[in-house]
Amino acid sequence: MKKANHKYERVNGEVQRELSDIIRMDIKDPRIAPLTSVTDVEVTPDLKFCKVYISVLGDDETGAQTIQGLKSAAGYIRRELARRINLRNTPELNFVLDNSIAYGMAMSKKIEEVMAAQDGREDEAEEAGKEEE
User: Strand pairing of 36-43 and 49-56?
Assistant: First the structure.
């Protein structure tokens, strides 16, 4: 059973690499943002379907336009994937917008703000302690 897991991890990795290359180099659709990356790929064990997680640097509208552009180019992308990777079946691609990178950046910014506010309070407490002496 363990070999099957490694096999699907390898398939997922190879599909992710090729999809990333196809989207970056071959697609010329103006709706697709230049800073688009494939963050993860989940291919079903029967190789019929593939869920592709796409991250886009920009606002929500840019992400929605990029997903629309990728959906319209899905046939071409699937054909190129079949040409580049020798699989029993070429999976049907389903593109999903992945906001985890933007969410992580927002959380990091909030943590930095809290840390800065906490440092400011500690500085004020030290100054107040010096004034009492």
Answer: antiparallel
Going by the DSSP 8-state scheme, the letter that residue 34 receives in this structure is S
Contact residues for 11 (Cβ-Cβ < 8 A; gap 6+): 43, 47, 87
* Cα–Cα dist 54/68, whole Å: 12
**pLDDT value for 35:** 87
- Nearest CA to 31 out of 64, 55, 5, 1 is that of 64
Give the bridge partners for 41, in sequence order: 52
pLDDT digits (tens, 9 = 90+) for 39-81: 999 999 888 999 999 998 878 888 899 999 999 999 999 999 9
In sequence order, what are the beta bridge partners of 53?
40, 96
What are the residues whose beta carbons fall under 8 Å from the beta carbon of 76, sequence distance 6 or more?
26, 27
Task: Give the bridge partners for 55, in sequence order.
Answer: 37
> Could you state, in order of their start, the residue ranges of all structural domains in the chain?
2-98, 100-133
CATH architecture of 2-98: 2-Layer Sandwich (3.30)
Instruction: Give the integer Cα–Cα distance in Å for 50 and 68.
Output: 17
